[in-house]
Design the sequence.
């Protein structure tokens, strides 16, 4: 199978490329190597892969790259919360317009294969919550004044009572709370629209939860919390944990994420719709920081500093049931082993 992998030089994309190439597939990698993720050209990239350093907006160059591909694995995107709202244009240009450009080129090329999209748990906004009185509820954005006083849990929108967080399933409503989340939701919608216009095309949206592992970029505001903590530990500093550290996430190793992509691309029958790609075991942010410090053996203990990043949410962790039953995916890398490996693995400059 000839597979186009956008963002194939990036953190997750490079692991997907390695797995596909090891399985004997023919790879075409498109990556613009954004400075936000690649301050220097990546080292150690495999040489048995066709590579194009182009922007997805360059339709003429992209048309050459997509010629004859059987499947598309769309990993290219700006990720993370960024610096502030001033990043909005760049996020939309690379994530939304880049996806639209890719889909138009595929349309014009007569593409009829399958598309696997790297989506994200951020499309859910806050996760799934239950009120003892009102059942399932969808709390609004947390009030800055409330967070400033250390009241980090979102209240019931009807009665203001405390809520219980639950694992979020794929049929939960989308509720993006920041620019990155909005662009990931839009990527899903654009790909769905493409599939409607091209009945032979199947779109699989893999909603990654908090991915960690080797090759993460370091010292960048466009990385996730795992990379931020790992960068601090690598500098011999205490990881700074915001809020009270009790916010829950699902940390899934990049090897498992790459395997989920291969399962979706190579399934005997095309698989449509969204899938949570997660471990199925939620952990607190403070647990991750402490595990990294313990595995490193030399860094100071995590420092809980309060506050909250603008646009961040309290709890979001996933139900793995649909991925297990339909995609045949279950995470295999144990948290302790994965974090120990991550603590030793070099990050990308």
Sequence:
């Amino acid at each position: 199978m000839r597979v186009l992998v956008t963002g194939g030089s990036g953190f997750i994309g490079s692991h997907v490329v390695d797995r596909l190439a090891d399985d004997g597939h023919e790879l075409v990698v498109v990556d613009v190597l954004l400075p936000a993720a690649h301050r220097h050209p990546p080292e150690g990239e495999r040489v048995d892969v066709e590579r194009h350093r182009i922007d997805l907006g360059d339709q003429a160059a992209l048309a050459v790259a997509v010629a004859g591909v059987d499947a598309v694995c769309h990993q290219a995107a700006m990720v993370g919360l960024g610096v502030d709202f001033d990043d909005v244009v760049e996020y939309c240009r690379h994530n939304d317009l880049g996806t639209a450009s890719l889909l138009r080129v595929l349309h014009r090329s007569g593409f009829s294969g399958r598309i696997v999209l790297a989506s994200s748990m951020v499309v859910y906004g806050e996760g799934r919550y239950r009120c003892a009185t009102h059942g399932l509820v969808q709390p609004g954005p947390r009030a800055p004044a409330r967070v400033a006083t250390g009241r980090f849990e979102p209240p019931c929108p009807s009665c203001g009572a405390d809520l219980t967080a639950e694992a979020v399933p794929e049929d939960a409503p989308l509720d993006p709370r920041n620019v990155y989340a909005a662009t990931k939701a839009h990527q899903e919608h654009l790909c769905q629209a493409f599939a409607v216009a091209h009945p032979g095309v199947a779109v699989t949206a893999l909603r990654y939860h908090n991915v960690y592992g080797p090759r993460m970029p370091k010292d960048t505001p466009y990385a996730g919390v795992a990379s931020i903590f790992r960068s601090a530990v690598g500098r011999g500093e205490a990881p700074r944990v915001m809020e009270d550290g009790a916010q829950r996430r699902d940390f899934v190793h990049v090897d498992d994420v790459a395997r989920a992509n291969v399962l979706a691309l190579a399934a005997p029958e095309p698989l449509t719709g969204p899938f949570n790609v997660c471990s199925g075991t939620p952990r607190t942010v403070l647990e991750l920081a402490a595990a990294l410090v313990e595995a490193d053996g030399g860094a100071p203990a995590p420092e809980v500093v309060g506050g909250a990043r603008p646009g961040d949410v309290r709890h979001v962790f996933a139900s793995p049931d649909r991925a297990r039953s339909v995609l045949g995916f279950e995470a295999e890398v144990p948290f302790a082993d994965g974090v120990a490996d991550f603590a030793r693995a070099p990050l990308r400059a």
Summary: The longest helix spans residues 88-109. The two ends are 32 Å apart (CA to CA). The longest strand covers residues 114-120.
